[in-house]
Amino acid sequence: MPLLDFQDVSFINDGKTILKNLSFVVEAGDYISIIGPSGSGKSTLLRLCSHLISPTGGNIFYKGVNMNKYVPTELRKSIAYCSQLPYLFGNNVKENLDFPFSVRKMPFNEGRVKELFSLFNIPFTFLNADVQNLSGGEKQRISLVRTLLFLPEVLLLDEVTSALDAENTRMVLNAIFTLNRNGITILWITHNPEQSKKYANKILTLEAGEMKSLEVLK
Ligand SMILES: Nc1ncnc2c1ncn2[C@@H]1O[C@H](COP(=O)(O)OP(=O)(O)OP(=O)(O)O)[C@@H](O)[C@H]1O
Ligand SMILES: [Mg+2]
User: Fold this and answer.
1) Which of 43, 45, 52 best tests ligand 1's pocket when mutated (most atoms within 8 Å of CB)?
2) How many other C-beta atoms are found inside a 10 Å radius of the C-beta of residue 16?
3) Which end of the chain has fewer surrounding CB within 10 Å, N or C?
4) Does the beta carbon of 15 sit less than 6 angstroms from any atom of ligand 1?
5) How many domains in the chain?
6) What is the tens place of the pLDDT at every residue in 10-65?
7) What is the pTM of this model?
8) Domain boundaries, position 32
């Protein structure tokens, strides 16, 4: 059984067709790069995958069960979305990183945070930093850490390296590839053609809301 199964999915908002008749499957262990011009519907597709929005036509199945049968907040523990514009709330970094623990009624695990900070090249002193003062690239990496404190089954990444330099991008690519090798399914939107091919086993191309191709690389 596929992990995610899109059957003739459309998304129309305010009379505007944003995604049209998408049918494809995501198998467990896939690493899919999603590419396509700006405005082609890539972010909308990941928002559907994480149940932030629902299809206006067709159905999405997760492990054989219609997505609308899942409680969205529970489903997002299994299917995690790291958004295009990193959204950090409150005053400091720690509040953001405590959130995944508090929703699970678990104590803050400093060891886990340290582990991820070193993986993404973030000095530990950033834990008490004011979110307003972080650079775009720092916000992107903190937002990734927040998404990865508890590992999901499916990881949805929306241009999460757009503000990073080459060195930090390489670090993130390696870390995500390691997660994929350990069994986590990855859907990653990128505008970088090289990055899209590096580790992916499939490339999904969107154009004007329609699926142009789903190329299998290996
Ligand atoms: N809720 C909405 N209501 C109306 N239009 C929307 C809505 N969400 C997205 N759109 C429009 O749908 C189209 C696809 O948006 P989307 O954000 O999915 O594109 P994208 O492929 O991620 O683009 P980019 O590469 O610029 O991030 C755009 O034209 C956008 O303006
Ligand atoms: Mg987008």
Assistant:
1) 43
2) 8
3) C
4) no
5) 1
6) 999 999 999 999 999 999 999 999 999 999 999 999 999 999 999 999 999 999 99
7) 0.95
8) 4-39+49-192+202-216
